[in-house]
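Journal club prep — side note

Before the paper discussion, L.F. wants everyone to see what a predicted structure for a comparable chain looks like in token form. Sequence:
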Amino acid sequence: MSEHSRGDYAAVNGLELYYEIHGSGKPLILLHGGIGAIEMFGEVLSMLAEGRQVIGVDLQAHGRTADIDRPLSFESMADDIGALIGHLGFERADVMGYSLGGGVALQTAIRHPGLVRKLVVVSAPFKRDGWYPEVLAGMGRMGPEVAEPMKQSPIYKLYASVAPRPADWPVLLTKLGELLRRDYDWSEGVEAMEAQTMIVVGDADSVRTAHAVRFFELLGGGKADAGWDGSGMSSARLAVLPGTTHYDIFYSPAFAPTVVPFLDAPMPEEASTIGDVS
């Protein structure tokens, strides 16, 4: 952590959920990918924190958040984030999630619509078959049997350096494998969402490009020409970052300049109050 950030734990839903606060301003909850931690965002976190209060979170069984006797599920982790927003005293917060964290962020907006102002879903589908088949095959192999081989990976070294119980590594992979093999389709929830949403994928992502377009359409985007004055433009945004994969998307020089203007733009109700000087 930098000298301008602080870490703490929130008691939510039987979990001691670890979070770090970086910067100041409007709150943005940041959710990492599977078997990752807050550190996964690298320099992007500090770029985002230049103009807002970024709250990085270690999800259940990840990073500094110890596991509890509860399966890993998108829904329960989303409820943790909803409880964290309340714990921190925010009326609403922006939420950005990547991969596994993108699914959690999406479920937070679906399950707790009043708490999410803007949503950024990075490299995550709304339906399990949004992943390429070879990615789904890899997810199918996730489990305790890969725990030992994966100890050679940088992601394990990060886990072992911060986890309250590093011996829980096989437990995390077991629970994560069970989650990743579970089918889901959140299309109805996506269509009913209230939060302004941006979808971000790489053009060589693990999420199918056609699926990202379908996601955008469910949100009301990509339906028609916006017109010369832009009046036909939906509030949803789709960004496909060139020359970018699922694994290096935060290293793309286009990432922060793409996301920050979306987060900074006032909501319709905020725009009306900005112009109201009476």
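L.F.'s comment for the group: The chain has ten helices and eight strands. Keep this in mind when we get to the figures.
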